[in-house]
Specification:
The protein is α+β, with helices and mostly antiparallel strands and 314 residues long. The protein has a domain of 100 residues: Urease metallochaperone UreE, N-terminal domain (HSP40/DNAj peptide-binding domain, Sandwich). The protein is 26% helix and 25% strand. The chain has nine helices and twelve strands. The strands form four sheets. The protein has a four-stranded mixed β-sheet with strand order 1-2-6-5. A four-stranded mixed β-sheet has the order 7-8-12-11. It has a two-stranded antiparallel sheet with strand order 3-4. β7 and β8 form a beta hairpin. α2 packs antiparallel against α3. It starts with 5 loop residues before the first helix and ends in an 11-residue tail after the last helix.
């Protein structure tokens, strides 16, 4: 996917004011609108102009685009990094995926679904607009619950109509049991109300930070559990530390092999119902790094009637 420079599409500098952008758009629209233009590429050019204006005329999308696009040139190979829009606060004026698909793949990748998965918040009875943001929390937070201070990047428009990024800091109570993609609603923290109405809400989409030990899928937890050969061959009870610090005793059956998966029900991410803990077993062979270790292996080779390539072990 190629990077698109919306500023060059409209012929304005990156520091252009909102009024400059509007004037440039109107001028280009008069030239390329298919109803009046005689240019051979009017349809394609007008689509590009509309796409650029959809981003640069909106302070929230423009601020996010500016942050993301630093250092890229038009036509340069581009992929947005995972979670690039985390921490940006958007109002409800999002684009659904079908709406975003009317523009380029670049636009759809960045802005399809931004702002509450494309939902357009419609204030009623003077109620303020709902705002949306993505935040990343630790897996430990969803096991224990926590209070976290989060910083949201909010676009600010100065007196000259130029967009800068400000920071909004909130103390957020993270309840136990949140899972990936869940929405946490903060009442009254959205857009201001009209007149005497109530402010909108802030909807936080929860994402879990990658964990060094566990992999999360929904509410299920996955862990690679390493075993010594004697633990797998004879059976054993192995302690497993969960993300909340609790220790779980897991019984390994006699004759366990690498590649086998054990399921411990109810020990995944908390919830109603909770997820499961799935243990992928991996038998680790000790190195023959000393004379004693080499002698042990030599003795096993002599005395054990074992052929790992025999059909019964396949």
């Amino acid at each position: 996917m190629d990077f698109k420079d919306y500023y060059s599409m409209l012929g304005v500098p990156r520091g252009a004011t909102a009024e400059d952008i509007k004037k440039a758009y109107r001028k280009l629209a008069r030239k390329y609108h298919p109803d009046v233009s005689k240019e051979t590429n009017a349809d394609a050019r007008m689509k590009e102009i509309n796409e650029a204006y959809a981003v640069l005329s909106d302070a929230e999308r423009r601020a996010a685009y500016d942050q993301l696009g630093q250092g890229y040139q038009p036509g340069q190979e581009f992929r947005p990094p995972p979670g690039w829009d985390t921490g940006f606060e958007f109002s409800g004026r999002g684009f659904s995926q079908p709406e975003a698909a009317e523009f380029s793949d670049f636009f759809a990748e960045l802005f399809g679904g931004i702002g509450g998965r494309g939902a357009r918040s419609r204030p009623t009875s003077g109620r303020g607009e709902d705002h949306h943001a993505k935040i990343v929390i630790d897996l430990e937070d969803t096991f224990r619950g926590a209070t976290r201070q989060i910083s949201l990047r909010v676009p600010l428009v100065d007196d000259g109509g130029r967009v800068t990024l400000g920071t909004r800091v909130l103390n957020v109570q993270i309840p136990k049991g949140l899972h990936e993609g869940q929405i946490l609603r903060l009442a009254g923290q959205g857009g201001p109300a009209l007149g005497q109405g109530k402010p909108g809400d802030l909807l936080l989409e929860i994402h879990l930070k990658p964990h060094p030990r566990f992999r999360v899928d929904g509410r299920d937890l996955y862990l690679r559990l390493r075993l010594a050969p004697w633990e797998a061959a004879l059976g054993s009870v192995i302690p497993v530390e969960l993300p909340d610090g609790a220790e779980l005793k897991v019984r390994i059956p006699e004759g366990a092999q690498s590649g086998r998966q054990l399921r411990v029900r109810g020990k995944g991410v908390p919830g109603d119902p909770p997820g499961d803990l799935l243990l992928d077993l991996q038998v680790i062979v000790p190195p023959a790094a000393s004379p004693q270790a080499r002698e042990l292996y030599a003795r096993m080779a002599r005395e054990l009637a074992f052929d790992p390539r025999a059909e019964k072990w396949g």
